[in-house]
Amino acid sequence: MIFSETILAGAYTVEIDRHQDNRGYFARVFCADTFLAHGLKPAVAQASISYNAKRGTLRGLHFQYPPAAENKYVRCTKGAVADVIVDLRPESPTYLRHVIVNLSADNGRGLYIPERFAHGFITLTDDTELIYLISNYYTPGAEGGLPHDDPSLGISWPAEVRVLSDRDKAWKPHSNIADELKGRMNIAVHKRS
Ligand SMILES: Cc1cn([C@H]2C[C@H](O)[C@@H](COP(=O)(O)OP(=O)(O)O[C@H]3O[C@@H](C)C(=O)[C@@H](O)[C@H]3O)O2)c(=O)[nH]c1=O
């Protein structure tokens, strides 16, 4: 596996090293020791699958507030997506900045998303599947989100949005929740409590 840190500290792309032969290939996609050696947390509480029938399906932008915050390790096993992560760590020099990473079954790339990031993706093909390894348990009461077209984030989605859930249409923009977000994402507060 080849790890490359994105411009958002702690968020990594992970390329696979294919051992190819006449049958196809074998490649490691996760190794707890190697993750630790790169400073990534290898904890896995849940693994989940996301299937999307149509191109232009957008899910996000989602996160869980501390102490239920999650690392996510995402891979696309069928089709292709543009994956978007947004840094929501108030102490970070890249607070509110985002990166877009193309994940596909063909490129085999993985994306490691640290805690206190928002995450979303848009499918670039019909019939798209993503697999997540998630470090924490699903905690509906701790969920939060931001609109994918939030002007404060300025994300240029690389495809037309055709399918969006009602929940994802209803997230309040950053300007409405700025103080709450900063307060709830402040790890110093959680360390004290
Ligand atoms: C996220 C999640 C949802 N669910 C349920 C709740 C609901 O009935 C159904 C669909 O949930 P959602 O609409 O939230 O699914 P979705 O919009 O796909 O949510 C996901 O979006 C991407 C961008 C992420 O980063 C994920 O962590 C997750 O938030 O599945 C679980 O049981 N466990 C889970 O971990």
Automatic annotation (TrEMBL):
Keyword presence, Disulfide bond: no
SUPFAM superfamilies on file: RmlC-like cupins
EC number(s) stated in the UniProt entry for this protein: 5.1.3.13
Chemical reaction(s) catalysed: dTDP-4-dehydro-6-deoxy-alpha-D-glucose = dTDP-4-dehydro-beta-L-rhamnose
Gene3D superfamilies documented for this protein: Jelly Rolls (2.60.120.10)
Keyword hit for Isomerase: yes
Subunit composition and interactions: Homodimer.
GO terms, molecular function: dTDP-4-dehydrorhamnose 3,5-epimerase activity
Pathway linked to the protein: Carbohydrate biosynthesis; dTDP-L-rhamnose biosynthesis
Entry superkingdom: Bacteria
Name by which UniProt lists this protein: dTDP-4-dehydrorhamnose 3,5-epimerase
Keywords from the UniProt entry: Isomerase
Entry-linked InterPro entries: RmlC-like (IPR000888), RmlC-like_jellyroll (IPR014710), RmlC_Cupin_sf (IPR011051)
Family: Belongs to the dTDP-4-dehydrorhamnose 3,5-epimerase family.
Function text: Catalyzes the epimerization of the C3' and C5'positions of dTDP-6-deoxy-D-xylo-4-hexulose, forming dTDP-6-deoxy-L-lyxo-4-hexulose.
